[in-house]
Design brief:
The protein has 145 residues and is α+β, with helices and mostly antiparallel strands. The protein is 41% helix and 40% strand.
């Protein structure tokens, strides 16, 4: 009789452990995916804020001012768009679209483009205020991970 109770206890205990393990692994994978998404969004916000602040700084500095910034950007697409008469940085991260307005009036001409990557990349962007209505942006990717 004791042997049967021990076997039943071991069987029930192992079944509960397997159920607990299956649930835990599923929750871990879902949490990991959500955490990766939040980290990418955080990196993108940090980079976009740095870019817009550098653009504002160069614009405020006047003709001849120049600034270089380096930042990590997750896989995304980013470009400039006219937002109510001012240039704004538009960032697309999968289903998320973020817009960061700047001080630069839309009548000023932005030359240059950003290098978009399908991997997390270290960018170096140089802002150069060339003339009254011409601000030049030079972006290059230094490293990909």
């Amino acid at each position: 009789m004791r042997g049967q109770i021990s076997i039943e206890f071991i069987f029930i205990f192992s079944a509960l452990l397997m159920l607990f393990a299956g649930t835990s692994i599923n929750l871990y994978q879902r949490g990991r995916t959500d955490l990766d998404k939040v980290n990418q969004l955080s990196d993108a916000r940090r980079a976009a804020t740095l870019i817009v602040n550098a653009l504002n700084s160069v614009y405020s500095g006047g003709i001849g001012s120049r600034q270089t910034v380096e930042y990590w950007m997750p896989p995304s697409f980013f470009a400039w768009e006219n937002d109510n008469g001012r240039w704004a940085l538009r960032l697309s991260l999968g289903s998320e679209v973020l817009t960061f307005p700047s001080l630069l009036p839309a009548e000023n001409f932005l030359q240059g483009k950003f290098e978009n990557s399908n991997q997390r990349a270290l960018h170096r962007t140089v802002f150069n205020y060339v003339s009254l209505d011409n601000l030049y942006i030079s972006d290059s990717i230094l490293e990909k991970t």
